[in-house]
Amino acid sequence: xxxxxxxxxxxxxxxxxxxxxxxxxxxxxxxxxxxxxxxxxxxxxxxxxxxxxxxxxxxxxxxxxxxxxxxxxxxxxxxxxxxxxxxxxxxxxxxxxxxxxxxxxxxxxxxxxxxxxxxxxxxxxxxxxxxxxxxxxxxxxxxxxxxxxxxxxxxxxxxxxxxxxxxxxxxxxxxxxxxxxxxxxxxxxxxxxxxxxxxxxxxxxxxxxxxxxxxxxxxxxxxxxxxxxxxxxxxxxxxxxxxxxxxxxxxxxxxxxxxxxxxxxxxxxxxxxxxxxxxxxxxxxxxxxxxxxxxxxxxxxxxxxxxxxxxxxxxxxxxxxxxxxxxxxxxxxxxxxxxxxxxxxxxxxxxxxxxxxxxxxxxxxxxxxxxxxxxxxxxxxxx
Length: 383
Fold this sequence. Notes:
mainly alpha; extended; 20 helices; 383 residues
């Protein structure tokens, strides 16, 4: 027993003869990385649910209970149960995806507290916003919303994330202005913001130098348009650039090239006759004919095509009607949850989240990715 404790984790696992615990090695390509890392025990348990239907139903039931706990929370920090639910969903559904419901949960969380003053400068609430922005098609809409509503403006994380997003869109000037704005506001921790800004300047200078070198290289190349001739000096310079092996190869190819063979018609009646064309033949080539002759293909009158009939098999119509009466639609098991009964006097945001457990969850996720502020009131939009 003491020998097993001194071994490394991999050797200890092999010596224990366990049947499970290596799901991470089998399904690691389906795991979405998290900045905070993952618990390997929870990760193996979540990955095992991909081939264990009982475990998959257990995960869906646990998610339902966590969502209901949000509605039933009576403590002093209503954001805390949301954070627990988000963290559990991210760890229990490592592949992410639409059926995990993470995008809908993030949207519900940020929307229910956007006008609460106590959470506008809460770093936990800002991180939820930033995670929601990572799942959207264009996160710039999120950052503009946070700026207009004064959410997270005292944290350096907001300016760093915003500037890096603008840098990824190749908007270097906007990214530089965002860094300077955060430094002027003394966003905390200011040391991390300044360090990120120095790294950004280094990347900008390196990119600018690379672009300058490429432009200078292109300027040294001879410029000519199609159909123009090079001067004598340019022609001699290009000829000298051709290497000797290439020149030898070109000469060998020319030496081995056979002369082109000319096709000759063997019809003696045509080849031996050198009589001039008659006036009738010349007239047929010189005239285009009348308008009626030129448009004869458009003069045909359409008629009913009744000359051919397709043979019908006996009883084919009845079978076709029977097969097309009911079409079975495939539904993913993770999305095919039964809708839960909701209270009429509950929180409207939480009620919408519970309804998101149905098969419409995937559609709602796609809509939120395209328009992340679609469920927000009009008075919350940036002006």
